[in-house]
Structures are given as C-alpha cells and as structure tokens.
Design brief:
Elements: H1 2-19, H2 26-47, H3 56-62, H4 81-89
Keywords: Membrane, Transmembrane, Transmembrane helix
C-alpha cells in the first residue's frame, strides 16, 4: 500500500516537472525530477514481493529426472579450417 502511494506520487511529481518547464527555473525542475526518481525507486523497492530462492537444489525439487537434459549446458566449437582446406584441394 505504501509503495503504491509512493509510486503514484512519484509519477505525479515527474509529470509535474515535465509540464512545468516553461514556468519554473531549471534547478527546481531538476530537483523535482530527482526527488521523483528517488521516491519512485524507494516505492518500487517497497512494493516488490520477497525474492524466491534460486539455486540448483531448489530448481531440481520442481523438476523430474526426465526433464533434465543430460548434455552439457554449453556448445563446443570445432575448428573447421581443415574441412575448408580439404574441400578446396579436391
């Protein structure tokens, strides 16, 4: 609830800073935009849910043995220079 209110106020403040560029001085607009940015960051940090555990063990609890890929998680690249040279020599 508090995070939602802070995000709403930050949105209004950044919109006010954007639309009041003709009326106010540059320092006031920059200060208002930075304050809105800080308020928005804090509001979104408060609003986000608790982080979940992301580890190999917790991931494997949700998957069966059949879903696991037995191959390596990276691809090895073979040098193809010999193949190109042998095909051009033929």
């Amino acid at each position: 609830m508090l995070g939602d209110i802070m995000l709403y106020v930050a949105t209004l403040a950044i919109l006010h800073a954007a639309y009041s560029t003709y009326e106010q001085k540059t320092r006031q607009i920059v200060f208002e935009a930075i304050a809105a940015l800080i308020l928005g960051i804090v509001g979104s940090a408060i609003r986000t849910p608790e982080l979940r555990e992301v580890t190999w063990r917790s991931e494997m609890k949700r998957r069966s043995a059949e879903e696991q890929d037995p191959r390596l998680s990276f691809t090895t690249f073979a040098q193809r220079a010999g193949i190109l040279q042998s095909s051009s020599a033929s």
